[in-house]
Amino acid sequence: MAIINASLATKRLELTKELMLSVGVVGYLLNPADRMSEIERKSLVPASTTLGIDVRILDAKSESELDSVFAGMTEQKISALVVSGGPFLHSQRERIVGLAAKYSIPTIYAWREYVLAGGLISYGTDLAESYHQAAVYAGRILRGEKPANLPVVQPTKFYMAINAKTAKMLGIAPPPRLLGLADEVLE
What we know:
This protein is an alpha/beta fold. It has helices at about 10-20, 35-50, 65-70, 85-90, 95-100, 110-115, 125-140, 165-170, 175-180; strands spanning about 25-30, 55-60, 80-85, 105-110, 120-125, 160-165, 185.
C-alpha cells in the first residue's frame, strides 16, 4: 500500500498558480527530518521553472521552527504557501492553519483535515479510498494469499477540498474551474 503524497508537490504548485494567477514567491514547507521530503524537494525546482514561480523551501521540524518560518515569510515576500503532507506537519495542522490565518497567507495543504480546521485548500491522496484498499488487502491475506505475492497498490483517487469562507477572508475568489473540480467546498 502506498500513499503517494510527496509526488504531488508539482500538482499543489499548479493549484497555487491557478488559485492566484499573479502569485509571486511561494513558500514550500517541509520537515527536513522526514525522508519523503527529499522527493518533494527534488521535484520543486523543475516544477517551479515550468510554472514560472519562485519557490522558497522552508524547513521546520519543531513547533518553534514553525513559528519562526511563519514570522519570516513577510520578509521573504512569500505570497502563498504549500505545506507538505508529512507526519510531523500533519500533527501540527491546527497550529499551521492558525499561523496561516494570523499572517493572512493563502495555503495549500496535503490533507482535507487542514481545510476542516479552517485551511484554504487541500489536494492529496483520498485517504478513505486508501484505507478501503488496505482493508481489501487484509481480507485477501486473511483468506490465505501471501503478502509477498500481492502487488503494491498506488492511489488512483485524489481528493480536493476548498474552504470558501477562508477564501473570502483572504480576498480570494477561487476560479469556477477549481470549484468544479473540488470534491468538497466548505461554506
